[in-house]
Hints:
Layout: H1 3-23, H2 28-37, H3 44-60, H4 68-76, H5 80-84, H6 110-118, H7 123-128, E1 135-139, E2 156-157, E3 163-166, H8 176-179, E4 183-185, H9 188-196, E5 204-207, H10 214-222, E6 228-233, H11 236-239, H12 242-249, E7 254-258, H13 264-267, E8 275-281, H14 296-299, H15 302-322, E9 323-333, H16 342-351, E10 356-358, E11 366-368, E12 371-374, H17 376-379, E13 384-390
Parallel strand pairs: 5-6, 5-8, 6-7, 8-9
Antiparallel strand pairs: 1-3, 1-4, 2-3, 9-13, 10-13, 11-12, 12-13
Helix pairs in contact: 1-2, 1-3, 1-4, 3-4, 9-10
Amino acid sequence: MTPAARVQAAIELLDQIIEAARAEGAPADRLIADYFRQRRYAGSKDRRAVRELVYRAIRACGEVPVNGRAAMLALGQNDTTILSLFDGSTHGPAVFGADEKGAEPGFAPEWLMLRLTASGLAIEDAAALLDRAPLDIRVNTLKADPATIELPEVGEHLAAPQGLRFDHGTPVEQWAAYKDGLIEIQDHGSQLACLAADVRPGEVVVDLCAGAGGKSLALAAAMENQGRLIACDTDKRRLGNLPPRAARAGAGVIETLLLNPNAELEALDGLIGAADCVFVDAPCSGTGTWRRKPEVKWRLTPERLKRFAQLQDHVLNVAAQLTRPGGRIVFVTCSTLDEEGSDRAAGFLDRHPEWQAADPELEQGVMHGLGTRLSPSHSGTDGFFVAKLLLPC
Length: 393
């Protein structure tokens, strides 16, 4: 592909991503994969270059652009090389007219920036959410020792005792250690959130919103494969990814349990009042994941944010019924919005006055309301809110 053809391909992909953001369609990474699956002629360098252009354009725009061309022109405002490729050449973008304008640059839609600011996030903190993320791994202590493991590259040691950091793009998934289950890819913030649960061998632990199970694997390692770890979710497809991952990691303590939305306790009946720890990695807006999924900022609306908050309240109420006296809930969202963080923890305590908040005791992050906030600017992690809620005996 010529450089101009790469720009045109990025524009076509941006058109799809913008439409999907408006219609709650497929995420950008899936759209990009599908696009190149249909264009086998594009080599690896072409795919990498087009993907880079797409994500740079998304990061450059605040509001949802009118179309992909406007998004790419916005990126060109700070990169004249891109503007020069709007040359009308074969397979390249048409020449832009004198009156044609690109999208307005910015970090996020205005309404969302106001919510972030109201949640105590400064402009520089918001900007850091759009930086490129490094690649973090967790050494799986069920199979390896962080002090002696040998990897093809030397990683930076992190505050999480099993955490190592590598440059973005490091081919970790090609390493034998990854294929053999000795390491897992997991953001440092996610590792710290799991440490807040302080799970121990022999406990009964419920991972209530397990998804594909990344945090379940970390919890299983901390439990040393002793006790019960029930990984639950309402998404059959995502939960179905966990058993092969658990087998690769040697995490035999994990049980999977599919739940029905709004009727979760039907399947969890035998666990009511039995859990030492309920880990609630609640569905959320994902404002803390913009470094990896910048298009998420275009997908959120005030109405969707309200629905997320209602769902988080519901999941916390379910978690309360599963916890034994003396037990705990660890509430986690990958969000930097108070509506999905401290406000939800405070609302929980209002509804359940017998409970109390405790310090999550994370080595990084800053106390924020009733929990701890992790962020790229302060802790070098994705954005998270972590709260620990205790039920006294």
